[in-house]
From TrEMBL:
The gene is Pcdhgb2. Coiled coil: none annotated. It is a single-pass type I membrane protein. This is PCDGE protein. SMART domains: CA.
Amino acid sequence: IGELIPPGARFPLEMAHDADVGSNSLLSYQLDSNPSFSLSLKESPDGSKQPELVLERVLDREKQSSFELVLTAVDGGEPARSGIVQIGVNVTDANDNPPVFSKSFYEARVPENLPVGSLVLRVQATDADAGINGRVTYSLSNVPGAISELFVVDSESGEVRTSDALDFEEKSKYSFGLEARDGGGLVSHCKVQIEITDENDNAPKITILSLSSPVPEDAPVGTVVAVLNVKDPDSGENGQLNYQLTSHPSFTLVLTENPDGTKQPVLVLDQALDREKQSSFELELTAVDGGDPARSGTVQVRVNVTDANDNPPMFSKKVYEARVAENLPAGSLVLEVRATDADTGSNGHITYA
């Protein structure tokens, strides 16, 4: 009997036979008590009574899939004699139950460096129906293309796996729906949320936003030489930066705070320059993040120094002496003086008087 058969349905049963005659063969029937079934007798044209099994209420195969009934036929003799027959009722399945997920909301946390094809989570849905009606398959439910490119669900096992590389810096959380469908077409849905955790997969990247080079040698202490920009898209300790500058007393690194709270390294003059001692500097700035293991980035900064007229001409001697004859003709060479100037260009060009 199908579980969706409405109450009142009748199922003819085999009639009993009695070899006696007269009242000894008059038969009546009895059915053992069961709330789901009753017995009805249908009188035939020849006066015999056809027993029928009457369904009293809707069956539910998921609650009870079979019944064992006993039908008793009693004759009219004295003493009465009886016979019994076992009636087995099997309830056939109807697709009256949708799949049911074990949870309505599944969540998982996975690192962004998870290999492609790795298991993220497993969903499970059960269906109380039998056979094809109880067979559940899984699929993504109306998800954007970006998600379907990153995740795939096994239709049989409900395992959600990665199908492409994850990137925390691109997106750190994904939410989408999954669908469970049974063989009869009934469906149910659940929500899945996958949080991507950061890994230290990005090294700091340093760029020079502005560079004042060359720098005059008479530039005051505190002059801004270079403004730098450092980016590390990682989060937490993986994105926290420490800075190292090639040790040189003439320069120092100052961290200024941007409106968004980030720190910006600025290279400033920390000591007076002297082009005559050193006309250029090769500095190296290194940014190191707080990951484990740490990653770093470097940038080379070349600073040239321009001349200031800070050096007077210097004679090679303080006193020059010469002895000449009194009859020396006019225009004769008496002596030659020489001066040098450490400055360059016009600052180092010397004239005599």
